[in-house]
Amino acid sequence: LAFFKSLRRAKAKTALEQNFPEEVLTFHKSWRSGRLEQMEITLQEGLDAGLPSDELEDFRKRLEEERSKRETREQLEKLAHVRGKGKAKMILALERAKMVGLTKEDISNTE
User: Fold this and answer.
1) In 3-state terms, what secondary structure has residue 16?
2) CA angle, corner 94, sides to 59 and 65, nearest 5?
3) Disulfide check for 106: which of 21, 25, 26, 32 has CB 3.0–4.6 Å away?
4) Separation of alpha carbons 43 and 57, rounded Å
5) What pLDDT does residue 79 have?
6) pLDDT per position as a tens digit, 60-103
7) Cα torsion angle, 41, 67, 107, 74, sign
8) pLDDT, position 85
């Protein structure tokens, strides 16, 4: 039983360390890669495997950053379709995009 718990923890830790496909905002195709959902599942697997919370903390921070990036991309996507009075909101959204660390490609695709 202890062997299987150890194996499960090792598998969960490896999953936490993997790189998930990056999302890049585009208006030509679907840009949501499933990254956020995969990260949430992986975090839950780590919790279920009993990994110590200090090992999960860095991953939680990465997950929160990705949630913030996703929200910002969604906001940019909405604002890109608004004409006229949305310019001020777009400027604020682009500033937020830079703050949360969206890629230059995300930002230039919106502009």
Assistant:
1) helix
2) 5
3) 25
4) 10
5) 84
6) 998 899 899 889 988 888 888 777 767 788 888 888 889 898 88
7) positive
8) 64
Do residues 42 and 19 touch, judged by C-beta distance below 8 A? no
Q: Are 24 and 110 in contact (CB under 8 A)?
A: no
Average pLDDT value over all residues in the chain: 83
Please say whether the beta carbons of 109 and 26 come within 8 A: yes
DSSP strand E in 5-94: where? none
Type of residue numbered 73: R
Q: Residue 39 corresponds to which amino acid?
A: M
At 68 the pLDDT is 92
Distance CA 92, CA 34 (A): 26
Distance between first and last Cα of the chain: 56
| Dist. CA 16–CA 106, nearest whole Å | 25
- List of residues 6+ apart from 52 with CB closer than 8 A: none
